[in-house]
Amino acid sequence: xxxxxxxxxxxxxxxxxxxxxxxxxxxxxxxxxxxxxxxxxxxxxxxxxxxxxxxxxxxxxxxxxxxxxxxxxxxxxxxxxxxxxxxxxxxxxxxxxxxxxxxxxxxxxxxxxxxxxxxxxxxxxxxxxxxxxxxxxxxxxxxxxxxxxxxxxxxxxxxxxxxxxxxxxxxxxxxxxxxxxxxxxxxxxxxxxxxxxxxxxxxxxxxxxxxxxxxxxxxxxxxxxxxxxxxxxxxxxxxxxxxxxxxxxxxxxxxxxxxxxxxxxxxxxxxxxxxxxxxxxxxxxxxxxxxxxxxxxxxxxxxxxxxxxxxxxxxxxxxxxxxxxxxxxxxxxxxxxxxxxxxxxxxxxxxxxxxxxxxxxxxxxxxxxxxxxxxxxxxxxxxxxxxxxxxxxxxxxxxxxxxxxxxxxxxxxxxxxxxxxxxxxxxxxxxxxxxxxxxxxxxxxxxxxxxxxxxxxxxxxxxxxxxxxxxxxxxxxxxxxxxxxx
Length: 486
Fold this sequence. Notes:
- This protein is of the alpha/beta class.
- It has 21 helices and twelve strands.
- The longest helix is centred in the N-terminal third of the chain and has 30 residues.
- Pfam families: AAA_lid_14, HTH_8, Response_reg, Sigma54_activat.
């Protein structure tokens, strides 16, 4: 082991190779620009790392006892932040390439190497290591100033509560949603986990956000992740963070959602879509109150409240072995169920009117409104996609409509037909599977008649002309199918 007297003035490099001539050649190449340490085995190198901070390691792949890649994996676990790694070898097999990725190797230098190339590689590695330290220091400074950065002023909290509070969840008087909001508001003040159940598009995230701004954590962040939108390996990185070099494409440290949400609320949507393997890691985080970033050597403490949501029946998935029972009880401190729109029909009108205002402002359609006959049409549809589907239909109607009044004809045919089976252009799908031919044809006849009446806004003259009926015949059919009134 050798090093020059000006040890503290130059970046330090450790060269690990069992061949004396190779060690000497690399040392002479780097000696003028770096403080060079040498070791002839992995064991000797580990001992040196215990005593001396090192910027870069150059390690030969073929050494007796332990390969360079396996040694560098251990280095990554023990010294992930203070050592930048360069490997020197003369093979490019798939096993070596896979090992290089696992070890977080900065660069792979093939033999025979040139002095200029080796020198440039080590210089770049030292520069990357210096930038990493600067990034870590800045990150620490940001995290230590959470009081300044994350705590919101009283006026900002008041504004947020006015925008996302429970009173902004649109509902009619006596709606089934009233009881859900009352219970959610009571639970919000206590720092316990909440599980929100309900079909997609019912407003589960809106309820979770209202709970956050009614809780003692209201000055902290509210962060959201859709667990169904990304695969497990990326979900772990998004939630728990990762270290630079942890995997291919990890070019810098990444703070996970749990770290960014410290002091606030983490909303995990569609948690029922996660795999059992990921559920184990999430359970550990919730139990221990700390996360281990991917590629990190030490856990990081976090302080968050978790609100989870899913459209799945989690108890059934627990029985089927698809969801861990211990995680279920961890996240379901309190369970809230948001009813679908078809079970709270009275909410459709106020929600539709609010959506018209919001979407019209976004699309530049001031003054847009829904007449009574259009509202009657919306009330006659089952809305399997809930509020999300209603919003899409209103956006479509605003885009296709010329004037401020949104007539029923601006909506899709499945809404006009009052059908929610998803087959808007296939009338056969709505026909009963039993009964006589005449009975089945009556279903189609009533559906066509209702759609035409809605499209022409109950103008019987136009409906009769389109369907080839007399006004007397049309009136008889309307009475037969109980369509004599809007």
